[in-house]
Design goal:
10% helix; 16-stranded antiparallel barrel; single chain; two-stranded antiparallel ribbon; 51% strand
């Protein structure tokens, strides 16, 4: 605990020290260092149902910097990004008994290197990242879904719930390549397939691989849509894990390889309203925990006069668990539905507060439907 506090304090001091270098010139191309920092805190309470009532708090500090290599030496293009996090507290997700977690900042308490990578965009519309990176920054994402607090609306559960691939809060050695066309794109990712658990990899530097652990391959294609004169996007993709350490749930033996497919649509429906949906399916039900996932939601900005930056979010999602997994586990429910309503109140350009309501129908390991209320606040620069 003390080490975590001291490490985060040193990181904040470092950001203050390097900040003058980032503002020396307003031209982004000539900035040497661009620091970033955000702080998020929340209080969540299971007020009814689940396994028991319970409340808790948690917080996360996100900090780091981008080093403009071209400003450092004109002969080397691109950017070096260093991103670390300090996590404190815990959520009452065990009281709720849900599968994914009622909070998307719930993780092992530590200070961890999350991502460290080199990136570059070429004149040929090719984007490259290589280093310590995670999948859910770039694959099966929705911008509107990022405001929700429940973990289901972050990294898609068909990936995070089925294998040890690199999703928040763990980055992994990997390569990301994206080719942009006029109204389309195609992207590919190659990642270490097993980073260990959060405790084993508490500093984010546990890097080892074998043919048994395997790799995660990701592929996604996107195309711009035009509905009601508003530009949206449709994405189709999939994941393939080459590892040989999966469990064949029907007989308990080791199994190899796991694949899944997904589709995403994010579409503005009006000037202030964005609709989004994701659907995913595992092609290997024998070694998968989550067989099928679907979500839909709305993000509505400025529904109250004079509150143009406030955002109302409404979403519903469903996890359907594989039969072989259910037969071999002590889980109570083979399907889980999560309903969330949340409202982000912008106090200024950098600070917000966000009341939240969640209702979980048939929580995976919960005895009763669970009702959760809470509030989150955040600051960033």
């Amino acid at each position: 605990m003390e080490l975590t506090k001291h490490t985060s304090a040193l990181a904040i001091i470092l950001l203050i020290v390097i900040s003058p270098f980032s503002t020396a010139n307003a031209d982004t191309d000539s900035k040497l260092i661009s620091p970033f920092f955000s702080a998020t805190g929340e209080f969540l309470s299971v007020i009814d149902g689940g396994n028991s009532t319970g409340s808790d708090w948690q917080s996360i500090l996100d900090y780091g910097f981008e080093l403009n290599l071209k400003a450092l030496t004109s002969s080397v293009p691109g950017t070096l990004t260093i991103h670390a996090e300090t996590i404190q507290g815990e959520s009452p997700t065990e009281s709720a008994g849900d599968f994914s977690g009622i909070s998307n900042i719930d993780a092992f308490n530590t200070t961890r290197l999350f991502q460290a990578y080199y990136s570059h965009s070429t004149p040929a519309d090719l984007e490259i990242k290589i280093g310590l990176i995670d999948i859910d920054d770039d694959f099966a994402t929705t911008e509107a879904g990022a405001m929700f607090i429940n973990s289901n609306y972050g990294a898609i559960s068909i990936l995070g719930g089925n294998n040890a691939g690199p999703i928040w809060p763990l980055g992994a050695p990997g390569l990301f390549v994206k080719k942009n066309f006029k109204t389309k794109y195609l992207q590919f990712g190659f990642f270490d397939g097993d980073l260990g658990d959060e405790i084993e990899n508490k500093r984010g530097t546990h890097i080892e691989n074998s043919s048994k652990e395997g790799y995660v391959l990701a592929l996604e294609a996107g195309i711009e849509t035009k509905i009601l004169e508003h530009a949206g996007v449709i994405k189709i993709g999939g994941f393939h894990h080459t590892g040989k350490a999966f469990t064949h749930f029907s007989n308990g033996t080791e199994d190899s390889h796991q694949s899944s497919l997904y589709a995403v649509i994010e579409q503005p429906l009006a000037e202030n309203t964005i609709g989004f949906s994701r659907i995913a399916y595992s092609l290997d039900d024998n070694n998968s925990t989550v067989l099928f996932y679907i979500e839909s939601g709305l993000s509505i900005t400025g529904i109250i006069p004079q509150r143009d930056q406030d955002i109302l979010g409404l979403a519903i999602s469903l996890n359907l668990f594989a039969d072989d997994y259910m037969a071999s586990s002590n889980a109570l429910n083979g399907d889980e539905t999560i309903i969330e309503g949340t409202y982000s109140i912008a106090l200024n350009d950098n600070f917000y507060i966000q009341p939240d309501f969640q209702y979980i129908v048939r929580p995976h390991e919960g005895k009763e439907n669970a009702t959760i209320i809470g509030i989150r606040s955040g600051f960033e620069f």
